[in-house]
Amino acid sequence: MTPEPELTLARLHALRREGVLPTDAIGPAVRWIGGQRTPASWRAWLWAVCLSLGVVFTFGSLAYYAVVNWEVFGPWGQVGLAVALQAVATGLALRAGSEQLLGRLGAMAAGCLIGPVLLVLSAVTDAEGGWWLLFGTWWVLMVPSVLAARLPAAALAWLVVLDLGVIAGFEPLFRALRDLPDTLPGLVLAAVHVLALLVWEALAPRVSWMQVRWAPRTIGAAGVCLLTMTALPTLFWEGDVASVVAIPVLLAVVLAAQVRYWRGSRDLLLAGLPLLAVVVLVASGGLRLVIEILDDTLLVMAVTPVIVAVLLALTVGLLVWLRAAREWPGEAP
Predict the structure, then answer these.
(1) Where are the domains of the chain?
(2) Is residue 168 within 8 Å of residue 130, measured between CB atoms?
(3) Which residues, other chains included, contact 316 with Cβ-Cβ below 8 Å and sequence gap of 6+?
(4) Closest among 268, 151, 266, 272 to 211, alpha carbons compared
(5) Distance CA 132, CA 168 (A)
(6) How far apart are CA 319 and CA 325, in angstroms?
(7) CA distance 13 to 26
(8) 10-residue block means of pLDDT along the chain (333 residues)?
(9) Contact present, 6 and 211 (Cβ < 8 Å)
(10) What does the H/E/C string look like for 159-211?
(11) Residue 264 CA: distances (Å) to CA of 18, 109, 140
């Protein structure tokens, strides 16, 4: 029986730390358990990518045609077109079955098309409730499609719909409560992504289709970018409460990432991204201090290369640290 790669890789880590398995034997051991790519696995991956791109481009071309000729269809023609596209995607999913990649892509497309159907129906029937209600309904109705698709991309699309719903939900809040910080949506979205990453990491060992690295890396990268953009106003102009809170939150994320992804399960990208965000904030704060202290264009132009050199040195130091931390060749791509 072929051993399970993730469990076996964890065991190899333990044996290496205990000194039972030499470091130079890690590479052959990883290849033996199937932890590295083979020509057959690369061909299967290429086929899946080509099939996915074909489905995406097909539906994309149909969507582009519909957008260009949208006004020609009329109100009920728009409803019919949206429902027809979703019916085609649902029929494709049912025809291919949930065990085939084409069927799962069809289920994903059917879930993504729920939003346009709700949009045209609300426009035709003059339904009221706001964008947050539309995105919230879309998010709830998309759950069966995500479960049927069993694809990381479908889960990420579901997360994007949730993000849009959160953004739309702040519109009535800003109208009702005018004292809310302007950067509060960014902080809330960052919290949503951190929570989504924690849920993903908790479910991944038990759910086979979630055992990929690019999806949690995408979620983590989006959360770090949101935190960085939320914290930047504090360094360049007078930030609000949410912008100030984002800085200690980012530092807490840095600490948690080192414990979880450097000392624990090794994922150097998720461990290094929060550190890179700190580098960006430090360089931005230094540039602001230079501009405020040196109220002279020539002096600012002379000192700016020094700031850039410090930023490059910090970035190079981060890359050297990541390279030195990479102790074994079996890291998942």
Answers:
(1) 66-167
(2) yes
(3) none
(4) 151
(5) 5
(6) 10
(7) 9
(8) 47 68 65 61 78 74 70 73 78 76 83 82 64 85 88 90 88 77 88 93 87 87 90 73 86 85 72 82 75 64 69 69 52 39
(9) yes
(10) HHHHHHHHHHHHHHHHHHCCCCCCCHHHHHHHHHHHHHHHHHHHHCCCCHHHC
(11) 16, 36, 34
Q: Say if residues 213 and 201 touch (Cβ distance below 8 Å).
A: no
* Integer CA distances (angstroms), 282 to 22, 201, 251, in order: 40, 30, 12
- CA dihedral 292→297→299→300, nearest 10 degrees, is 60
Which single residue is written with the structure tokens 């470091």? 23
Distance CA 163, CA 149 (A): 20
Tokens 């399970």 locate to 4
Which residues lie below 8 Å from residue 79, measured CB to CB, with a gap of 6+?
117, 120, 121, 124
Residue 69, helix vs strand vs coil = coil
The CB-side HSE value for 146 (13 A sphere, CA atoms) comes to 17
Residue given tokens 């049912």 in the structure block = 94
Residue 81 in contact with residue 74, Cβ under 8 Å?
no
Cα end-to-end span (Å), the chain? 25
